Amino acid sequence: MNDPETDAIIMIGEIGGSMEADAAHWIKENGTKPVVGFIAGQTAPPGRRMGHAGAIIGGADDTAAAKMKIMAECGVHVVASPADLGKKMAEVLKGVPA
User: Fold this and answer.
1) For residues 96 and 98, what is the distance between their CA atoms, to the nearest angstrom?
2) Which of 60, 56, 59 is nearest to 44 (CA)?
């Protein structure tokens, strides 16, 4: 947020843990630039280990859907696929004064 050369931010997260929700709340309170976000692991079944211990869905707030909802509520422009990150960022930046 403090880098004058940065116009916008892409935030990519994953299932498990609370860092994405924490970041979204921080963005809501302190954000000065648009953020586009994506959460990997949307099709992961609850309790399933997805590559490492931090990517285990432990509770309701750890799911991709819950994180995406929190991010959207905090003003992050959320996409369902990483393929849509660039398109969404272009849309968001069109609405931002230069």
Assistant:
1) 6
2) 56
Q: What is the pTM of this model?
A: 0.83
Q: Count Cβ atoms below 10 Å from residue 77 Cβ, excluding itself.
A: 18
Q: Residue for token digits 């498990």?
A: 16
Q: Do 85 and 36 touch, CB atoms closer than 8 A?
A: yes
| Predicted confidence (pLDDT) at residue 96 exceeds the cutoff of 80 | no
Contact (Cβ atoms closer than 8 angstroms) between residue 41 and residue 54: no
Question: Is 45 in contact with 19 (CB distance < 8 Å)?
Answer: no
Report the C-alpha gap between 21 and 68 in whole angstroms. 9
Distance CA 96, CA 66 (A): 27
Taken in order of first residue, the domains within the chain and their CATH numbers are 12-94 (3.40.50.261)
Looking at residue 98, what is its pLDDT? 58
Query: What's the confidence (pLDDT) of residue 46?
Result: 64
Residues with active-site annotation = 52
